[in-house]
Amino acid sequence: MKHTRSWIVLFALVATAAVASVPETAAPQARALDTEVQALKDEVLDLNRELFMLEEELLFPANTQVAVFVSMDVGEFFALDSVQLTLDGKAVSKYLYTERETSALYRGGVHRLYLGNLKAGDHELVAIFTGAGPHERDYRRGATLKFSKGVGAKFVELAISDRASKQQPEFLVREWE
């Protein structure tokens, strides 16, 4: 399906270049052609959007889907560098965050770290957080969640928050209902 999308985008680019190379003496015809090309480009974009959604549905059906998200609050006691995610003992995701991405997380953003398929049954998710902790020291902590996957999608949040009473970061793993 990715090849199909590439061909669609390539078609739109070639059509745009063809209109740009029309001589000025054919201005009225060029405008009509430009209008047609714009309409075709809009149709191509709609088709591309539909293909993407169909691809997502085929690759990750709702009854086997599992998604893991990362969120943060203030970040006074922890500066996130990376997250490693294992599911049932198998590494499924590693992500290195940029300064801009962590800034977005501090402002309430949520990052989808993993999207995959998982059969029904009991599973274990382990997340390893790496970054700078209190007093600018290297910090590496893990959080674990044992959960049961039933029919339907499963959503899990890896939440990083500050615990002011202990002046330490807190790493929570929770299921979304």
- The separation of the N and C termini measures 32 Å
Order of the strands making up the biggest sheet: 4-1-7-8
Unreliably modeled segments: none
CATH topology of the largest domain: Immunoglobulin-like
- Percent of residues in helices: 25-40%
Overall shape: it is: flat
- Helix count equals 3
- The number of strands is 8
- By CATH reckoning, the class of the largest domain would read Mainly Beta
What's the SSE pattern? HHEEEHEEEEE
What can you see in these coordinates?
The chain has 2 domains: 2-59; 65-176, Immunoglobulin-like. The model has no long low-confidence stretch (mean pLDDT 83). It is flat, with a radius of gyration of 23 Å. It has helices at residues 2-20, 27-59, 99-106; strands at residues 65-72, 79-87, 90-96, 110-117, 121-132, 138-149, 154-163, 168-176. It has 3 helices and 8 strands. Strand 5 and strand 6 (138-149) form a beta hairpin. The strands form 2 sheets. A 4-stranded mixed β-sheet has the order 4-1-7-8. Helices cover 34% and strands 42% of the residues. Helix 1 runs antiparallel to helix 2. With 177 residues, it is of the alpha+beta class.
Layout of helices and strands:
Elements lengths: L1 H19 L6 H33 L5 E8 L6 E9 L2 E7 L2 H8 L3 E8 L3 E12 L5 E12 L4 E10 L4 E9 L1
Parallel strand pairs: 1-7
Antiparallel strand pairs: 1-4, 2-3, 2-5, 5-6, 7-8
Helix pairs in contact: 1-2
